[in-house]
Design brief:
The protein is about 5% helix and about 45% strand. The protein is mainly beta. A hairpin with a 6-residue loop joins strand 7 (about 60-65) and strand 8. The longest helix is centred in the first third of the chain and has 4 residues, at about 20. The mean pLDDT is about 85.
């Protein structure tokens, strides 16, 4: 899978599991940020087992909130407000779906509302 955020493009290796394989591509939307987590809301629901809330920088997850009903795809580029540095802590049920390749993930100039595409 490829990920494009603003004018930056990254490759992501999806896990070979049922959840990752069920994500309908392409996905395009306006991103939001929570610290150095970027995410895009999605309108599909995937039944999943929660992997917990602590992830590595470069992880891509599918998440859903039982509180708000929102669902999304998120990528960790650094620390979140809940982080135990250098781990990234998320705030709701999450499932790891892939990992970004490489280590050059500078998104410091990305803002809420910028376009995020997964294809």
């Amino acid at each position: 899978m490829n990920v494009k955020i603003k004018d930056k493009e990254f490759s992501c290796n999806l896990l070979d599991d049922e959840v990752a394989k069920s994500i309908p591509l392409p996905i395009k939307g306006n991103l939001s940020r929570w610290g150095d987590e970027v995410y895009v809301l999605v309108d599909f629901d995937i039944k999943m087992k929660d992997d917990g809330k602590i992830f590595e920088v470069g992880d891509m997850i599918y998440w859903k909130s039982n509180k708000t009903g929102n669902r999304g795809i998120a990528i960790f580029f650094g620390n979140t407000p809940n982080s135990d540095k250098p781990k990234a802590n998320d705030a709701c049920a999450c499932r790891l779906i892939g990992k970004l390749e490489g280590k050059n993930w500078d998104i410091s100039d990305v803002k809420k509302g910028d376009c995020m595409e997964l294809f």
